[in-house]
Amino acid sequence: xxxxxxxxxxxxxxxxxxxxxxxxxxxxxxxxxxxxxxxxxxxxxxxxxxxxxxxxxxxxxxxxxxxxxxxxxxxxxxxxxxxxxxxxxxxxxxxxxxxxxxxxxxxxxxxxxxxxxxxxxxxxxxxxxxxxxxxxxxxxxxxxxxxxxxxxxxxxxxxxxxxxxxxxxxxxxxxxxxxxxxxxxxxxxxxxxxxxxxxxxxxxxxxxxxxxxxxxxxxxxxxxxxxxxxxxxxxxxxxxxxxxxxxxxxxxxxxxxxxxxxxxxxxxxxxxxxxxxxxxxxxxxxxxxxxxxxxxxxxxxxxxxxxxxxxxxxxxxxxxxxxxxxxxxxxxxxxxxxxxxxxxxxxxxxxxxxxxxxxxxxxxxxxxxxx
Length: 371
Ligand SMILES: Cc1ncc(COP(=O)(O)O)c(C=O)c1O
What we know:
Elements: H1 2-13, E1 27-28, H2 41-54, H3 69-82, E2 86-90, H4 93-104, E3 110-114, H5 119-127, E4 131-135, H6 140-150, E5 157-162, H7 174-183, E6 187-191, H8 205-208, E7 217-222, E8 232-236, H9 238-247, H10 249-252, H11 259-274, H12 276-293, E9 307-313, H13 315-327, E10 330-331, E11 334-335, E12 345-350, H14 357-370
Parallel strand pairs: 1-10, 3-4, 3-5, 5-6, 6-7
Antiparallel strand pairs: 2-8, 7-8, 9-12, 11-12
Helix pairs in contact: 2-11, 3-11, 4-5, 4-9
Bound molecules: pyridoxal-5'-phosphate (PLP).
Pyridoxal-5'-phosphate (PLP) binds at residues 92-94, 97, 118, 120, 162, 166, 191, 193-194, 222, 224, 232.
């Protein structure tokens, strides 16, 4: 195993070695459980009821015998919540992106993808036989230029963007993206992993921008972040969803979600819908925590979302700061290459309604000591 040791030692010497940390007993400042729903008593109760009803696993893929009323009910509920025609579940956000993108874009098509899109989108693009062009982050003029030159050479064009960019916390300008998609007759694929439950009364970026879903829009989202469960969904027109069910290999060739996770997620959607103040409180907390962080001599970009990157730039320094925090019982991971570009390492804080004020005070104190 010399080769493995050599790779690992290279990773260590460039401060890019990663290891998992046990979450128990630490203050967790990097979970995506934005609304604190993963252990909400009603969410847990619904999941336990389904567990008792159906058992642990689903037993098969959706197209064999792993599609239950729990899956169908959640799909219908999500389609209604997101204001779209139809919805289909996937095992995770990663699986949704790697399966859906190649199902929609094939040889003779063009994919245009924002350079800061999530790794699962990048992998989905790699698996597609379409031509791929990466456009600079949020540079919609450049996107327009590419389309002006290239649109005529391709059958379909799929524009892909995160709604909320997962490592920077900024948002796509969906109004511009949609107008470009309409002007050049493209499909628009939005990854709502971090927008579901955090923007637009929890419904996502379309609602935040006051826009309505149309057939050219495909909305992907996860159940694993603000909805406190696990799994993912893709929403679109009836025909597109049908096509995805028939073509997405990461749906066809894998066991479906355990029904209990669907039942818990459905309850989480109900809670978000009935309690719009949760999303408002999350935003207020994000603003408050960002204000506190700006007391420190650190660059902390803020875009009004609960993802707050504390820029450290240097990989080694970011790692040492994260290790120092962990010694004080605080889990705030150093995000480094290849998740972000080299030289742009950061501590990525995600705001959650779970945090207590005294935990935030402790974090600020320790960060101040470590700078
Ligand atoms: C933007 C984005 N898309 C997709 C995913 C993958 O989702 P999941 O964790 O459900 O696989 C993530 C995070 O993990 C993400 O941040």
